[in-house]
Amino acid sequence: MSYANLHKADIKAKVEQLLSKMTLAQKVGQMTQAERLTCSPAQLKQYHLGSILSGGGSCPGDNTVQDWVNTNDEYWAASMEQDQDHLAIPLLYGVDAIHGNNNVRGATVFPHNIGLGASHDVDLLKRIAQVTAKEVLATGVEWTFAPTLAVAQNNCWGRTYESYSQYPEIISQYAKAFVNGLQANLDDNSVIACAKHWVGDGGTTNGIDQGETTLPELDLRNTHITPYYQALDAGVLTIMASFNSWNSEKCHGHYYLLTEVLKGEMGFDGFIVSDWDGIDYLAKDYFDTVALGVNAGIDMFMVPENWQLFIEHLIKHVELGNVDISRIDDAVRRILTVKYAYGLFDKPRPAQRKHANSESFGSAEHRAVAQEAVRKSLVLLKNDNDVLPLSKHANVLVAGKNANNTGHQCGGFTIDWQGVDSNEKIEGGSSIWQGIKALAPHAELSTDPLAIEADASKHDVAIVVIGETPYAEGMGDIRQNDDVIIEAGSQIKGQLKVLEAYGKSLELSQLHPEDLALIESIHAKKIPIVVVLISGRTLVINPELAIADAFVAAWLPGSEGQGVADVLFGDYNFHGKLSFSWPKTNKQAMSSRHQTCDADYLFPHGFGLKY
Ligand code: GLC
Q1: pLDDT at 489 (0 to 100)
Q2: CA of 110 to the centre of ligand 1 (A)
Q3: Whose CA is nearest to atom 1 of ligand 1?
Q4: Domain extents for the chain?
Q5: Ligand 1: which of 35, 37, 96 to mutate, judged by most atoms within 8 Å of the beta carbon?
Q6: pLDDT over 90 (residue 193)
């Protein structure tokens, strides 16, 4: 672990001194993280909580930067109110700022990780992390649950877009750069990073979110553990446990993976945080799950709603001897060490910190980094007759459900957990249509599902922006039926803990038939077509690709749609290369990648055309 303005020995002495004063209730409180909606500042003080989080879309007030700062100020003040019952220990406030400070109105929203994986630009990742840190600090928040180091192996997984690549090598490079960008020197420009989800989240059978990852240990290490070495090397201060199981044992209760491998063998000296109620599935009785999660090696517990019950149970377990006080002290030492290492005890209240309410939040300078990321993430899959780049003087018809919808181009974990469907809710930035219009004065937008106004005598070319609509986590899963749900990884008290799937097929023409209908309608008018695909994963696109003259994978580009237009009209060349091989058939798409070789794919990993 890297340290702020304190030396390791000083921190150790401070931690021991503080620990020696803490009661059992204060120690257990420090290990507890509640959601803001279920815990007031007064309750935080009463129960001595160590952390509060905002889940996806859990935004205070009117979701302005000021509202966030005010909320953090109130929690911080409560945590620092020392009296005969409460010790002043500043809380950590955590959010999922996974592609910018994406919950907050007006934030710079970057491309999701699958697009950044195509950029192959490590320095860009560091700059994205630095901008993200500043926009998180502007809201008074100190901790983001990023980067995700998942090595997605199955397109059915609804979180594929949170993965940079199907291969660990790229992810390892990005892990170091992103953690360094977020944490830097643990100074006033830094936030605390959280590498997640430990471990094997991207390797579940059938891509079931929170499912079962069945692998020999060597494969688990080589594919899914590898990126964490670089995150540790960069001094990542926290790591989040994963919902999935490994060989039928839940990671949240896995002593070997959490304590022996991560903390022992790999020497991780920060703290492990659970995922959202991640311990719930360890046993049928919640009382038992608490002891299982703590004894396995988790240090802080994300127990958004039932945090009071968690505290009650854990205190009881210590009194009964089911959980040894040495485990509690180890967890609290780790948490306090991270807080001291980050300099949290020396920081003023959030409103008085250097970046609070910073004018740079959502600034043109920040958005320029995001626009560059969009440009570098785009992958050109087809360009017949060199239809691209387009002339800015061309009569362009723009169509498709994702052409003028900044919410759709941002995807999940944006403003709301499952994302939003609108331009209005994404303040600042530009839709892809707005970006095109800014460069091509003769462009016109069709909102008709079949673009009936398309006319070869009026339009030189059509840009059709299609693909997926926003989703997050299990709600993005693809499942032909529920028979494929793997019992060990998703069973919870006899019910299946799975969310409504996004669809039953990875064929775009099955998932969104309206897209092919639109392309065919324009094609019938004999107008050249440039297809721009908005998606969180590589979909089966054979019929759409066949009749497109040019085809661009744009992934989930975020708030700066202008970046797409920059490349379509030739201000910049294509740069992106696939970080996931592109499937040829639905069967191939729905199988795990390590079961087929690159050569069998439509486009191999590393593919990408240029002008
Ligand atoms: C979610 C996700 C995790 C996220 C956490 C807090 O369930 O699994 O990635 O950080 O809850 O929102």
Answers
A1: 52
A2: 18
A3: 276
A4: 4-352, 364-600
A5: 96
A6: yes
Q: Whose CA is nearest to atom 8 of ligand 1?
A: 275
Work out the pLDDT band at 493, boundaries 50, 70, 90: very low
Tell me if residue 532 falls in helix, strand or coil. Answer: strand
Question: 388: which DSSP letter?
Answer: P
Cβ distance 337 to 529 under 8 Å? no
The residues carrying an active-site annotation are 275, 473
| CATH code of the domain occupying 364-600 | 3.40.50.1700
Q: What's the pLDDT score for residue 494?
A: 43
Ligand 1 within 6 A of CB of 604: no
The sheet carrying 245-246 orders its strands as: 212-213, 245-246, 249-250
610 CA distance to ligand 1 middle (Å):
37
Q: What is the pLDDT of residue 486?
A: 64
pLDDT, residue 3, reads: 54
CA of 554 from ligand 1 middle (Å) equals 25
Report the chain's mean pLDDT, rounded to a whole number.
95
Whole-number Å distance, alpha carbon 238 to ligand 1 midpoint, is: 14
pLDDT of residue 284: 84
Q: Which residues contact 120 (CB under 8 A, 6 or more apart)?
A: 170, 576, 577, 579
**Residue with CA at minimum distance from ligand 1 atom 11:** 276
Query: Is 127's pLDDT higher than 90?
Result: yes
Q: Which of 211-215, 237-241, 272-276, 605-609 has the lowest mean pLDDT?
A: 211-215
Burial (Cβ within 10 Å: 0-12, 13-18, ≥19) of residue 539: buried
Rounded to two decimals, the pTM is 0.97
Ligand 1 pocket, residue 413 CB under 6 Å: no
Where residue 434 falls among pLDDT bands split at 50, 70, 90?
very high
Atom number, ligand 1, closest to the C-alpha of residue 417: 12
Of 70, 144, 149, 49, which Cα lies nearest the Cα of 103? 144
Top CATH class of 4-352 equals alpha beta
Per residue in 506-554, pLDDT (tens digit) is 999 999 999 999 999 999 999 999 999 999 999 999 999 999 999 999 9
Task: Using CA atoms of 448, 110, 352, 42 in order, give the dihedral in degrees to the nearest 10.
Answer: 70
The percentage of the chain sitting over the pLDDT mark of 70, rounded to a whole number, equals: 96
Residue 584 alpha carbon to ligand 1 centre in Å: 32
Residue 362, classified by CB atoms within 10 Å of its CB into exposed (0-12), middle (13-18) or buried (19+), is: buried
Q: Which atom of ligand 1 is nearest to the CA of 243?
A: 8
